Amino acid sequence: MNAPALAGPPAEVSPLLTRLAAERATGALLRDRGTLFLEDGRIVHAESPATPGLDVLLTTGGGLAPERWREAVDQAGARRQVARFLVDSGRLAGGELEICHLAAIFDAAFFALSPGSGPSRFRRGATHWIGSVRSVPAAAVERETRRRRELLDAVWPYPLLDRAPVVPRAAAPGQTVTARQRLLLAQADGGRTPADLAWVLGRPAFHTLLDVRRLAAAGLVETPHAPVPAADETPLPDWMTQTQSPDVALLRRLRDALEASL
Description:
Blueprint (H helix, E strand, L loop, with lengths): L14 H9 L3 E5 L2 E6 L2 E6 L6 H6 L6 H11 L5 H7 L5 H19 L8 E4 L11 E2 H18 L23 H9 L6 H8 L3 H13 L30 H14 L1
Antiparallel strand pairs: 1-2, 1-4, 2-3, 3-5
């Protein structure tokens, strides 16, 4: 009997990111669908035009007043110390900021490292205006990106859902709909895409994609079968780009797992 073939190591999500991590590089890894910021080879921030910004996570999805966010950006953005200002001024608890920031990293990295995100470029020495919050090993971000891709397909393997307008369907008699699902379905007007819903609800874009696929698998959302045209993306100012929003329980588990692996 022939011995079973051994599975090789998982393919790298981004060979350039792996190399930059090994070199302990500092700067910005730019791709068409997002940017990863590195310091000494570790990821300290990430952003993507496909995801809500950190401001949305903290204001729409959290308890920070929008005017407090604007104040922090005005006072400390040019010095790249927005995170420190929010905490030191008492506007935000450090733990809440850290959890939202982790959501931003993993959420944006999922899109920035997606297969169709175009060529990679590295801007050595570049930093982000949010300032220092927490760093994450590049390998952990790659592992989580792979896991998220697999999870979406395991739930409902129809990627067209991710960019199509979310069209609700009536629940079957006796079918259970969770409170979280009801909130999403209440905002799904047949024109909003999962990305639109993420912004409206103040949730991470990936978590919204996952919710939509679960709803489609349950027959509560239409599954499209025709290609969806690409949406135009508006560029942001050079020094101020955008970030994301959280499922707090999941993010706390992610943080704990990261700490245990360090």
